[in-house]
Design brief:
heterodimer; A: about 800 residues; alpha+beta; eight-stranded mixed β-sheet; 25 helices; globular; B: alpha/beta; four-stranded antiparallel β-sheet; nucleotide-binding (chain B)
Chain lengths: ~800, ~230
Amino acid sequence: MFKLNLKIAWRNLWKNKGYTFINVLGLSIGMASCILIFIFIRYEMSFDEGFKNEDRIFRITTNWTSPDGFEESQGVPKPAPAALRNDFKNQIEKVGAICQDGGIIKVKDDAGKEKIKTLEDIFYAEPEFFQIMSFEWLQGNPMQSLSQPNSVVLSKDMATRLFGDWNKAVGKIINYQNRDNFMVTGILQEMPQNSSFPLKIVVSYETFRKHPNERFDNWGNVSSNDECYFLLKDGVSIDEVRGALPKFSDKYFKRDNISKQEISAQSLGDIHYNENLGNFSSKTMSKKELYGLGIIGAFLMLTACINFINLATAQAVSRSKEVGVRKVMGSLRKQLVFQFLTETLTISVFAMLIACVLTEVALPGMRSLFQEEISFSIIQHPIIFVFMIGLVIVVSFLAGFYPAMVMSGFSPALAIKNKVTANAGGLSLRKVLVVVQFSITVVLIIGTLVVLKQMNYMREKPLGFNPSAIALVNVRNDSLSLIKYQILQDRISKIPGVLTTSFCRNPPSSSNNNETNFKYNGTEKANFQANTKIADENYFKTFGLTFVAGKAFSKSDTIKEVVVNETTLRKLNVVNFNDALGKKIKIFGKEGTLVGVVKDFNNLSLHEPISPIIITTIKDNYQNLAVKMDSKQIKSIMPQIEKIWNNTFPENYYRASFVDEDISQYYETERVMGVLFKVFAGIIIFISFIGLFGLISFVATQRTKEVAVRKVLGASTFELVKMLNGSFLLMVFIANLVAWPLAYLFVSKWLSTFTYRIDLSIWPFVLAMVISMLITLITVSLRSFKAARANTIDALKYE
Amino acid sequence: MIELKNIEKYYSNKGVKNYVLRHVSTTIKKGEFVSIMGPSGAGKSTLLNILGMLEEPTYGTYEFLGEDVTTLNERKRIELYRNHIGFVFQAYHLIDEMTVYENIEAPLLYKKIGGSERTSRIANLLDRFNIVAKKDLFPNQLSGGQQQLVGIARALAAQPSVILADEPTGNLQSAQAEEIMQLFQKLNQEDGITIIQVTHSEKNATYGNRILHIADGVIKDDVQLTGAKAI
């Protein structure tokens, strides 16, 4: 019976090729989107899995509560791990600290000649860290390999890269920062892509402890590079530890009246999803975004299913005879439902096959969009196959069940006499579904328009400084390099096309920030922290910062004069900026004279307001040489800079970036979101409008006789087209009305995450309406015009 | 085998009752070949639909094989369709997507007849109606008469005791119509199948052995024919 059903289904689908094509196309595109979204979500949810005792592993983090708000960091003070180990003996089995660092790695060949020079991230880790986290060791073990100072463990891929064969790496020496030599004592299995721990070079923590510049007793300093993990004792609840942490924090942190600092615990499973706290891999993905994607996928599928339901119920009339005949032959309603579901299933399976092809085609695009190695391998991840089967079944039921119920419910007496009318196929429901479908479409169109407009605004908003054609050339601040600063600057300044150069720690807008307390005019400590920019006297000219009062500071190697921005003075309640000139500001323990006030500029992403900023000179704090160039000559200047740099610092590793590119990196999430919106809006528009085309085709066929009669009565082609189009335009219009409030809620919520944002005007809404109505008009007219022009005789002669 | 008592059927429209059938009572015995005749709109088709349980009468009782079927649930009605009643339609109503063979096979599948039995029954019918060569054709590849032959073969496949035919020759040319009527007569006389047909044609009615004349929803005349046409 099933085989026969399948055969009949196939013939039926073949007979209505046009509708079948529309259905399969719509469903397969919807399914492909769903598969892509699913494999992305699967990938994102697979982070940091498979560690032994993973539900007992936690990370401690630091947070600050102050009048400015709540902030948190994945870093902890350096003495915290030892204190935790000591104070929680009964609850915690093991505590392991790990710290991220990075620098030049050099490897010599057997002859003692330099073979490899590369810039790499390294990690200082206690052996306990590896006892907590069950990474796979190919050679060595945590206790042996990481207890001694100057020992290093490499991942398999890094060992292969540095020494050719990882088997021969143990016992070899690598050089770090031209300073230390480490001996390889172990090999780790390489980390997968979906890991928050990109550990390739792990140096023993003892090495770190022996650093002359590092202090391990200072609770007042927190670097996000210092992470600490612990393993809870079996049978102990994490709440017990969490309950005791406030007391622990009180014991060690200095308290003051206005702010509070605390240690808290975060579970291993939360690390990848928590966007407020970072991790070593800098990959986080909030669950909210994943759910959002899932919802969009569900909506795409829903619109495709609506197409199917609409076309199937519209076609139902033409199949009523079959239903009647089958019923009097002794078919139960159940069997008819089953037969129709078989047809839907056939379409779904077919659509799924095409969807697989589409997925394969779209995958490289998605990989480059998210910059992740997402794989569509059913063998590697059988769950994807399960999802695909599930999708086919769900779609078959969602799309097939209602039409099957309608069709199988026809009364045989009416069906046989061809007295079932189009309305029996649920015209009102069809209208409702079209409205739902277009509401979703319009919401996405509005969303896309707003997202694109905001992106454009962010690109074009003046930031208060000029970030274009400025290269940041990384410099080291060890004593040897400091001596050569002047030579480097002089030589680079002489390259034709270089306009100005400035040594600085960070450009005016940077994701790398330092905030500190300060005293103004000898008074009490200011009740807010200032963002500090360390730079030389050419900083203002190089970045095009403008002064509202005073002037730039003069050349100095230490703090002598300072410049602040308008926000700083406003927060200090200074009304006339000129009054502030000449006042003293104490910062980093030294006093400087305020000589200038710069106009406010955006120092963070446009999500954030402008911070109070203090700019001053500290020569050994610079990290970059900013080089402002003639934008037409960038291509020819950059290689020259590299050459000069390599000649000046032959021991070091050249690294440069562009300020405007770094700034656009802030909006990577928004860029990805913009692309996603464009793609999904395109898909949903396509699906909705092929559905509409199918429906108008059907309506036109249904009303052929009516059209013919009206024509005989003297209706013009235009009037007929108008008649056929009318209800569709009305439906899309109503869909717009439904979509507007929903879209408003959604986009205004999204925009509120930006401090600097476009004003939400009515235009995206009106534009979405115009777009949707216009496409509807075109789609529908294509078909209705043909129907209106059809030969009257053909329609009437068979009556 | 069929007993109708006081069957009434009307449609209410804004409180006005439009009667289609009034006080219809009759008995049809096993082996009869009944023709229902009457002008258009007299209620012939409604009566046939009620006999075929496609419509329910407003009043009255209908007993089929001694069982009251006016209020039968779907499952029981379907059982009757599967085992006792075959339908033949004016417009043949073959399923367009199925071949001749499959059309005839469909009721057997619903009746859950085994594979070999099915094959032999269908072969038998194809053979009997001389349509073996057409078994793999689709309905739209056949002439009207051939389609109706398939329609009858389909109705007979489940070996029903009654065939209900609604103007079986209405769409056919006279030569083909005659062929179909002869077939009906043969089925009635040789196989003892009860046949009830609705027809406009006096000539077609003469193939049977009883005529019910209906006008304005009432049985005006019930004529027994003797000496039916020789085959």
